[in-house]
Amino acid sequence: MRVSFQKGALCLANNLTINFMYPKIDLKVYIVSAVIIISTIVNAANVSDDNLLADGKPFVSWEKPQQFSKTYYVDQHHLKASDANAGTEKMPFKTVSAAARILKAGERVVIKKGLYRESVHPAQGGASPDKMISYEAAPGEEVVICGSVEVPASYFAKSQGWVFGKNSSELNVWQIDLNPEWFEGYNPFGMTNLMSDTEWLDYKRANMTAHFQRRGLLFANGQKLTQVAKPAEMDDAPDLSFWPENNGLRLHVKLPVGKKPADYRFEVTNKEQVFAPRQYGLGYIRLKGITFRHAGNGFPVPQRGLVSTTRGHHWIVEDCIIEWANSVGIDIGNESWSTTEPVEIAHHIVRRNIIRNCGISGLQCYIAKSILLEDNLFEKIGFHNAEHAFESGGVKFHQAENCLIRRNVFSQLTYAPGLWLDYNSNTNCRITNNMFADISTARGGIYIEVSKRNCRVDHNVFYNIRCQYWLSGDYGAGGSAFYTDGSDSIHFDHNVMVNIENTGYGSYLNAERIVGMRGGITSFHTLSNNIFVDCRKHCIEFPNTRNFSDNNLFINPKPAYIKLTNPAPALLLDKDAATTLYGWEKNSRTGIATYSFDSTKIALNLNFDSPSSIPDGFEKIENKLIFKDPRKL
CB–CB of 429/404 below 8 Å? Predict the structure, then answer.
C-alpha cells in the first residue's frame, strides 16, 4: 500500500480514496473502515509461503546455476605453493590475494584449509548472473581469512614508566611494542572509533567512552581483551585488559598474577577490512564457506565492514562466518548518505551465514534494494556501548525496497536492536519467520523508523527483549518487541511476543520529523492474530485511531494493556473498552499460559490453558505452541 497526499484526498494504492475536505464525512470511521479492508487484502496471502513480499507477489531471484570456465587453487600448506605459480591444483597460489588479482568473469578460486593473514581486494567483478566470480572454501575444509597478526613472545617486556592505579606495583602488566611494518598505512590502535560523519551522534545523551576508544582489537587465545581509556584504570580493570599509548604503537596488557605472555597466543588487528574491492561498484561476486575474522574498523558512517561489497551489486554471500569486527561485520550498500547513487546497487543474496561478535552491527546496507536475507544467525552483536550513535543493529537497512527477510535468528544482542529499517525503508518489504531472543536495546527487537510504504511483519517470535536505558521519555521504545517511529502502513500479524520488558507493539507519531514533504502520521497499521505474553508495560500502543487491531491473544496481561496516546489525555484500555470505543479487538481474547526457552536449541515452548484460545495461523499440539530455530524449518 503506497500512501501519498494529493489535494483534497488521501490516496491509497489499492484504489481506496478517503475524502477529507467535506465536513459531513466522519473521517475517523472512514479511515478505520479502510484499514480493515487493507488488512483483509494483505492477510489473504498464503501464510505458509514465505517467498511472498508484502504485496503478495513472489520475491523473484536473479540467481542462476554456475558453470565456471576456469578454476584456480590456493593452498598455503602445499610444498610448491607460490604466488608466482599458475594457480593450478598441483601448482597452487600461496595467498588468496594472488587469485583476486587475476580472476575474471565466469571463473572461481577454490581455497584449501588454512589461516590466511591478509586483506583481499578483488580486482574485477563478474559479468552476469551466470558469469560470476566465486571465492570458495574447499568442501569440508576450514578456511580463515584474517585481518590480524600474531604477536611473538619476544615483543613483550615488563611495563615501565606508568602508574596503573593505586596498586600499580602489585599488577602484572606487560608492554608490547608493535611492529610498524604490520600496518601498511592503517594502524587501528592509533585511530579512535569516532565516526567520520557525526551528524546524528547525540553527544548530550551518548556515553562517549566507546567513541574515543581506539579501533584496534587485541586477543589472547581467541578472547577479546577489554580496552581501558587511561593507565590508572588498569587497577580496577579485569585481567586481560589493555591500554594503548597515544601513538598506537605500544600496548600495555594486564595479565593474571603469575601469568606470562608466553602462556597465551596474542593477536592484534592490523587491517581495516578483510575482504573488500578497492574499486566501487563491482558486481556478481560470490563468497562461499569462508570464515572472515578480525578487523579494526571505525564506527559507521561510513559503513565499512570487515567484509564489504564496496557499493557493489548482485553478490552472493553464503555459508560464511564473519566475526570479530570492531564495528560492522559486513556492509552491502552505498556506504554513506554523502555518496551518489550508482546505476546498480544491492540486489544481494545473504544466506546461511553466522555473523557474530561485532561491536556495532552485524550487517548494514544503505539503499537496500531487493535484498534476500535468509537463514542467517546474528549473535553477540553490540559489545560497544554506542547505540546513541543511531547506526547499530544486528541488521540495519536504509531505503529498503522489495526486501525479503526470512528465517533468521537474532540472539544475544546488546546496545543494538535486532533489525532496524530506517528512512523510507519499508517499500514492499516482508519480515517473516525470524526469531529475536535475548536482546537489550534502547529501541526494539524490530525498529522501523520514518518509513511510509507497505510492509508486512509476520510469523516472527520475540523473546526476552529488554532495555539497559531508555532512549527518551517521549519515545519509550527501549525493550519493546516491535516499535515504529513516524512510520505508516505496517501490517503485523501472527507474531508471538514473550517476556517483553516494555511494549509488544509500540508506535510513536513523530509528527515533526519531515521525510520527503511531510512528517509522520503513524497511520494505517493493522494488527491481527498475534500472541502477547507477559508484556510488562503494554501489549499494544497506538498513537491515534487511524489504525486497527483484532483477533489477538493477550496472555497474562498487565492492567491497561492497550494504550491510545492521542488525543490527550492518553487512554489506558483493555480489549472491551477498545471494542466499545473504536471497534478494535472484537474477536480478541485473554488467557493464561506458561513458557520456557532453550537457548542452546533456540526453542520457545508455550503452554496454554486452553487450545481454543490460540489464534488461527499457528500449528498447535493440543494446548502447546513450539517455536524452533527457523533456520532448520
Answer: yes
